[in-house]
Structure formats: structure tokens, C-alpha cells
């Protein structure tokens, strides 16, 4: 009865205002915050730093904000950055110049090696990537190089990675497919990935991330400012496209999982 009465009066101004407030509240409750300083990403890096990581990948490094946070939390770790947009990669190189242990790669990671067309949005460079997602914005097509995470690790002699952070505007599935050998062999300890409205267009659901990682021996949780909420997937609760960040950690790293869980 309550549902019917609300639906019948949905155009009334008080109910429209209540609905607007409710949507905003749920976004805040779900931590729809893309600033790594405040949304829990910094905390994840600080917790990981206590475990002395040796190797970190920043895939979709943009201009280096997350990389700088990672270096501050783990100054002795090697950090490999990947930025597919050449213009942005040049800014990234300038921003991290002088920080030891950081390697900047002006290439993207994907499910294959070669060249791809990249859509570049001058007014919103963070939206740039392989998939054209910045609808309505002026854009330019650039050609860029890509490789796979597996190939890069083989070429560089990297046998394990403590954390792979993936923020590639909808191409997360391709990046993870390119790490299939490293993931399958248990050589990656944790993966941070983005999930949100863009996944409606890419058809990669949170359910797919859970299936991929759980079958490979990982626990998956959402990142909050005060902890990572590890839990099993429930479609009615979790498939909300609210974003932004999730963390997958190998189940055999229980001490790390417990530390990351915090009081979230």
C-alpha cells in the first residue's frame, strides 16, 4: 500500500524533493567519491605500506596523483606507471620526476599488444581512453601503443606484484584479461579496480568482477574511508553502479585482509 501511494503521488513537489535527497544520500552512503585523498584509497596504500610491498602497478596513471600517494606510503617499492594518452604521459613524467623507483610507460595495458585508437577529451582528459565514453564532449582520436600485463612482466623479469591499481575508464576487463597468467599463477597479491556508471556501457558487471577474482582465489570488497568492506556478492544490494573503488585481495593474505578491513 505504501509503495502504491508514493508511486501515485510521485510528481508532487515534496516527494520529488525527497527522492532527490534520497538519491544523494545513497551516493554518499555508498562512498561515491573519486578523490583518493578522501575516499579510502590513501588508507589502502598506507595499510599496504606496513607490509613492505616491493612492486606496484598504476594502470591508467593519468597525471600521477595516485602514484605520488603510493610512493609516499611505500617509498622503497618499484612503481610501474602506464598512461595510454601521450599528452598526459608527458605531464605524468614531469610530475614524478625525481621520485626514485618510479617507471613511467607511455603505453596502455590491454588484452593484446599492438596499436589502438584512443579518444582524447581535451576538456576532460581523465575520461580519455580506448572506449569512447565522454558523450557530447569535443574529442580527438589519437593512436597509442598497448601491451599486456603478462608480456610486460615477462619482459621486465617481474615475478610478482603486490598491488595493481586499474583506472582505465571502462577498459578494466581488457586490462585484467591481459594479466590472466599472472593472476592464474597467484603472482598478483591485490587488485584495485573501478566500477560505476561506465559499466552500464561496457556490460561488465560487478558480478563479473566477483566471479573473475573469486575463482582465482581472491576476496573482493568495496573501499570506504575507514576500511574495506569484504563480502560476498548480492545482486539486489551490490549491482548499483554507484562506484567508485573495489579491492580484490588473495585469500591466502588473510593478515592483509584483516588490516585493510579496519572498522569499515
Descriptive report:
Helices cover 38% and strands 22% of the residues. It is globular. The protein has an eight-stranded mixed sheet with strand order 3-2-1-7-8-11-9-10, sandwiched between helices. Strands 4-6-5 form a three-stranded mixed sheet. α3 (41-49) packs parallel to α4 (65-73). The two termini are 35 Å apart. The chain is built from twelve helices and eleven strands. The protein is an alpha/beta fold. The model has no long low-confidence stretch (mean pLDDT 91).
Radius of gyration: 19 Å
The percent range for strand residues is: 15-25%
**Could you give the order of strands across the largest sheet?**
3-2-1-7-8-11-9-10
Low-confidence stretches: none
Number of helices, counting only DSSP H or I runs of 4 residues or more: 12
Q: Which class do the helix and strand fractions yield?
A: alpha/beta
N- and C-termini, Cα separation? 35 Å
Order of helices and strands: HHHEHEHEEEEHEHHEHHEEHEH
Envelope shape: globular
Note the main sheet: 8 strands, mixed
The residue fraction in helices comes out at 25-40%
Number of DSSP-assigned strands: 11
Mean pLDDT: 91
Amino acid at each position: 500500500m505504501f509503495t502504491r501511494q508514493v508511486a501515485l503521488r510521485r510528481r508532487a513537489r515534496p516527494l520529488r524533493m525527497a527522492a532527490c535527497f534520497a538519491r544523494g544520500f545513497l551516493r554518499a552512503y555508498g562512498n561515491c567519491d573519486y578523490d583518493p585523498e578522501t575516499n579510502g584509497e590513501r588508507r589502502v596504500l598506507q595499510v599496504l605500506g606496513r607490509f613492505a610491498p616491493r612492486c606496484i602497478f598504476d594502470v591508467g596513471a593519468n597525471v600521477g596523483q595516485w602514484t605520488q600517494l603510493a610512493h609516499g606510503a611505500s617509498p622503497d617499492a618499484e612503481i610501474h606507471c602506464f598512461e595510454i594518452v601521450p599528452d598526459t604521459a608527458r605531464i605524468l613524467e614531469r610530475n614524478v620526476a625525481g621520485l626514485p623507483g618510479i617507471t613511467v610507460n607511455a603505453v596502455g595495458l590491454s588484452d593484446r599488444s599492438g596499436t589502438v585508437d584512443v579518444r582524447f577529451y581535451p576538456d576532460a582528459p581523465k575520461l580519455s581512453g580506448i572506449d569512447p565514453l565522454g558523450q557530447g564532449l569535443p574529442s580527438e582520436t589519437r593512436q597509442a601503443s598497448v601491451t599486456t600485463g603478462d608480456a610486460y612482466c615477462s619482459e621486465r623479469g617481474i615475478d610478482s606484484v603486490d598491488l595493481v591499481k586499474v583506472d582505465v575508464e571502462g577498459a578494466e576487463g581488457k586490462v585484467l584479461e591481459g594479466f590472466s597468467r599472472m593472476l592464474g599463477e597467484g603472482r598478483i597479491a591485490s587488485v584495485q579496480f573501478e566500477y560505476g556508471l561506465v559499466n552500464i556501457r561496457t556490460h561488465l558487471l560487478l558480478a563479473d568482477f566477483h566471479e573473475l577474482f573469486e575463482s582465482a582465489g581472491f576476496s573482493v570488497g568495496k573501499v570506504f574511508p575507514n576500511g574495506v568492506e569484504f563480502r560476498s556478492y548480492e545482486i539486489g544490494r551490490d549491482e548499483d553502479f554507484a562506484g567508485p573503488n573495489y579491492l580484490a585481495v588473495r585469500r591466502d593474505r588473510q593478515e592483509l585482509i584483516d588490516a585493510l578491513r579496519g572498522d569499515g
